[in-house]
Amino acid sequence: MQKTPMTATGLQRLEDELRRLKSEDRPAVIRAIAEARAHGDLSENAEYHAARDRQSFIEGRVLELESIVSSAEVIDPSTITGTRIKFGAHVELVDEETDKEINYQIVGLHEADIKQQLISISSPLAKALIGKDVGDTVSVPAPGGDRTYEILKVTYK
User: Fold this and answer.
1) Three-state secondary structure readout of 66-97
2) Interhelix angle for 46-70 vs 8-20, to 10°?
3) CATH class for domain 77-155?
C-alpha cells in the first residue's frame, strides 16, 4: 500500500470527521430512515429517499476516510530545517506581476484548503516550489497565462 504524506493536523481533522460520521451522522440517518418508513408507502416518500441518499453518502465517505487514514504517513514539518522547500513548508511568495505577497503551506492531497492557505503537494504551484530555495523565482501555468513568483521566506513550524 502506498503511503500518503500528511501533517498531523490534517490527519486529526480527517479522523475527527470519521468519528463524527460514525458516532453521530450514521445513527441519525438510521433513525430518519426508520421514521420515514413509519409514514407508509415508500415509493412516494421523499423523506425516505432523501434519508437513503444521505445514508449512501455517509457510508461512501466513511469508506473513503478509512482508506485515507490507513494510508497516511504523518510528517512533522517542525523537524525539518533549512530554506529548501519540502513537504510541510510555509512559503512566503511575492507575485512579480502584482507585487502582492501570499503565504501557503504545502500539505497532503486530502488536507488541502486554499481558503486556509493550504496547498496540495500535487498542485502546480507546489510542484514548481518543491526543491527551490529562498530568492528563487518560479513560473506556474495558470488559466490566464503563466504567473511568476519570487520566494521570499521558507519556514517549518
Assistant:
1) HHHHHCEEECCHHHCCCCCCCCCCEEEEEECC
2) 150
3) alpha beta
Q: Is the pLDDT of residue 25 over 80?
A: yes
Residues with Cβ within 8 Å of 13's Cβ and at least 6 positions away in sequence, in order, are: 111
Residue at 57: amino acid letter: F
As a whole number of angstroms, the distance between CA 133 and CA 12 comes to 30
- In the chain, the largest separation of any two C-alpha atoms, in whole Å, equals 69
| Cβ-based neighbour number of residue 57 at 10 Å | 13
- Architecture per CATH, 4-74: Orthogonal Bundle (1.10)
The residues pairing with 107 across neighbouring beta strands, listed in sequence order, are 120
Is the pLDDT score of 44 beyond 90?
Answer: no
pLDDT at site 1: 67
Asked whether 151 and 129 are in contact (CB, 8 A), the reply is: yes
Strands of the 90-95 sheet, one edge to the other: 118-120, 101-107, 90-95, 147-155, 137-140
Would you say the C-alpha torsion 34, 36, 42, 46 has a positive or negative sign? Answer: negative
For residue 1, list its beta bridge partners: none
Is 65 in contact with 17 (CB distance < 8 Å)?
yes
